[in-house]
Amino acid sequence: MTVDTAPAPAPAAAPARRERTLPAGSVITTFLVLFLVVAAFSVEGFASTRNAGFLLLDVVVIALIALPLTLIVVTGEIDLSVASTVGLCSAVMGQLWVAGLPLEAIVPLVLVLGGVLGAVNGFLVTRLGLPSLAVTIGTLALYRGLAFVVLGDQAVADFPRAWTTWAISSIGSTGIPTVVVPLLVLIAVTAVVLHATPIGRSLYAMGNSEDAARFSGIDVARTKLWLFVVTGVVSALGGVYWTLRYGSARADNATGLELQVIAAILLGGVSIFGGSGGLLGVIAGALLLGSVRNALQLVNVPSDVLNIVTGVLLITAVVAPQVAARVRGRRRRAPA
Amino acid sequence: MSAPATKSPAALPEELAAPERTGRRGSALVHRLFVVRELGILAALVLLVLVTVVANPRFLSGQNVRDLLLSAAILTVLAAGQTMVIVTRNVDLSVGSVLGLSAYATGTLLVVAPGTPVVVAVLAGTAVGAVCGLVNGLVVAAAGVPSLVVTLGTLYAFRGLDSLWASSADRLQINAADLPAGFKALGGARLLGVPVLFLVAVAVVLLVGWYLRTFRSGRELYGIGSAPEAARLSGIPVGRRVLTAFVVNGALAGLAGVLYAARFQTLDTTAGTGQELFVVAAAVVGGVAIFGGSGSVYGAALGALLLTTIGTALPQLGLDPFWRDAAVGALILAAIALDRALQLRLAARLRGRNARRDR
């Protein structure tokens, strides 16, 4: 085994090289734009306002939950329980509605519940020092199980029409769903927090080296705890929206959605080990997954087969940069 | 330069490894703690069975126990393979999809060629799984991409392949009536009253356990999981070992697919959906550390048995079956919290022992 013991010129050359690398997410964004252009010309019915509306409606919840989860992944942690939080919040929302509470009271209660569920994750990870992957696999099962305990296998579907039609309404005749507006606000807020505040910088610092972050005065445990709480609240919001959009509260709502959200985040160029990636890429990743699925549905590819596309896209997105880096010889030896 | 073989019976995360002088006694202590950990799950299992029997004496009736063992067999085989992968600080989330693909492939083979001997069908299903495992392992080991991401991708891809195959062959479901009698007999076959499928699972666990404990390459899997960089520097072929772990795990997921086909005999493209979480859960409950380096396949097998028993015991206890997932989740959290406590205690004990000796 030969070990290269002379990396002397590397440090001097590194900054110059780094300047030449593209901003995070630009590759996937370019890919998205190219795909949209090609699909608009080659897939019949893709570029209609009606279809754009459907496409966006399907992406909304994924993009919404991806926002706080991106921050968690950047710090090097993960939360697999988000979809179960959606399910539990949806079930509780249904049960409270059956009990006769008005939606104006239910929604805040459900959001608080989401915060508590997130706090449980955060407590176990930051105070007991348990690995977030294992903790949130546990709460994935726990929260989904509690959703079934709360609502069983029944569905609550008699929500007021005003709310459910708002959930799928569009702005004027543009076809753009109304919910995109609040989503854009949340995207902007998250982008500013992640990319333009000291808090955002500290998240990257934690992801790169937790010890170094702690030594430089960042309260790692508290920051992570709050990230889990926020993720819980946003997932609860996703649960409320999911329930209204499909007009039905069920315990199995959004089952498996966590994998799609994480796929969007990783496709967007965020490293699963933390410390790198940006929000632009994540939003582009979510949109790309949504548009590819939508376009293939329009050309009558069975929906199950779309899974191949999701999987191959995801693997390509992570393998391609590695291979490119190896070809350019930037990395000496990739970890196995 | 020869790699220092791991001497301790149970490999440890590097921060816990005792200095050489106290290595023997330290490792005996470590070994005892791990045995205690496995006995703990066994005790939980026995307690659960006892409580359920008191509530409903028919819980231990022959047919009920046989059903339980049949259900546990599939999860146990998956958990045995997953242990090999997790021990190397990797994870394979695609096993549910591999199970589905292999079950469908085995079913198709038996429908197209009903005369196929059962042994050939078993080998075919296992081979399909091994190929899937090879794909996972190659991408992980060669491209250096985290296994969580790769196998999340193949979770989708293998499932999609399964659907594509089923829809293009225009055979969306394979029913018991389509399968040859010889294969169907496998599902209900018994040896001395014990279901054969369960015996297969036991054999798999013993084989994997023997390999991980006895063989040098098996010990090296623990070394890789404890400290990948140290393993590389000490001359362990990390890429090849990880690749092997993925191929074996894929083959076992393929075997689990055959068992699934033999047990349920009605196959569609949703077979095994969501199993990956129960498999990882079984391993974690059984004391396999999610970040590699420690845990045994026996623990994982007991975890699989415990999770399956919970599923069947709840209704007998008069609880809604809806409580199952919640119970499983709570169990996972309890198990990792317990592991953390044991780990801290062990570290403290080893430190104390060394301090006394140094004086």
UniProtKB/TrEMBL annotation, chain A:
Keywords: Cell inner membrane, Cell membrane, Membrane, Transmembrane, Transmembrane helix, Transport. GO terms for molecular function: transmembrane transporter activity. Signal peptide: none annotated. It is a multi-pass membrane protein. The chain crosses the membrane at residues 24-43, 55-74, 80-98, 105-124, 130-151, 163-196, 225-244, 265-290, 305-325. CDD domains: TM_PBP1_transp_AraH_like (cd06579). GO terms for cellular component: plasma membrane. It is found in: Cell membrane. InterPro entries: ABC_transp_permease. The keyword tRNA processing does not apply. This is Autoinducer 2 import system permease protein LsrD.
TrEMBL record, chain B:
Pfam families: BPD_transp_2. GO terms for cellular component: plasma membrane. The chain crosses the membrane at residues 39-56, 68-87, 107-131, 138-158, 192-212, 242-262, 274-292. It is found in: Cell membrane. It is a multi-pass membrane protein. Keywords: Cell inner membrane, Cell membrane, Membrane, Transmembrane, Transmembrane helix, Transport. GO terms for molecular function: transmembrane transporter activity. Part of the ABC transporter complex LsrABCD involved in autoinducer 2 (AI-2) import. Probably responsible for the translocation of the substrate across the membrane. PANTHER family: ABC TRANSPORTER PERMEASE PROTEIN YPHD-RELATED-RELATED, AUTOINDUCER 2 IMPORT SYSTEM PERMEASE PROTEIN LSRC. The complex is composed of two ATP-binding proteins (LsrA), two transmembrane proteins (LsrC and LsrD) and a solute-binding protein (LsrB). This is Autoinducer 2 import system permease protein LsrC. It comes from Geodermatophilus telluris. The lineage of its organism: Bacteria, Bacillati, Actinomycetota, Actinomycetes, Geodermatophilales.
